[in-house]
Design a protein that fits this description.
With about 130 residues, this protein is mostly helical. The protein is built from 6 helices and no strands. The mean pLDDT is about 90.
Length: about 130
């Protein structure tokens, strides 16, 4: 079972911040230069989960479990908003930045990508001896 985990130390926060910046750069590169049917939609979603998680761990005292739950809740809420066509309802359906940040359409496979991202996070954190779990 995944324990609550320790809070993040100052040095660990710097590592999480560096990881978040690196992941952000990768996500921007994917958004600008990749236009395929796998990397951009699914690998990008997995990486987006890692990005939000590392940003939360860098910026807040949340534990592994709390940060992961918050990250997955944000992702699912965005997906629900896509299903409800919230961007269109807000008049932002044609706004390129809004569509890049929040996505354009609901896809059940995105939820699997988010779950995969969560599994990657747990795997990485548990592999860090005495750090994440």
């Amino acid at each position: 079972m995944l324990s609550q985990g320790r809070r993040v130390s100052g040095n660990a926060r710097l590592l999480y911040a560096g990881a978040a910046i690196a992941l952000f750069c990768v996500e921007v590169a994917i958004a600008l230069f990749v236009n395929d049917a796998f990397v951009r939609p699914y690998v990008g979603d997995v990486l987006a989960i890692l990005l939000v998680y590392t940003a939360l761990r860098a910026a807040t005292p949340l534990s592994l479990r709390s940060a992961l739950a918050t990250t997955l809740a944000i992702a699912v809420l965005i997906e629900v908003a896509q299903a409800a066509k919230l961007l269109s309802a807000l008049g932002l359906g044609e706004n390129r930045l809004a569509r890049i940040v929040f996505g354009g359409s609901f896809d059940w496979l995105d939820l699997l990508a988010y779950a995969a991202g969560g599994i990657v996070i747990v795997g990485i954190e548990l592999a860090r001896p005495g750090k994440g779990a």
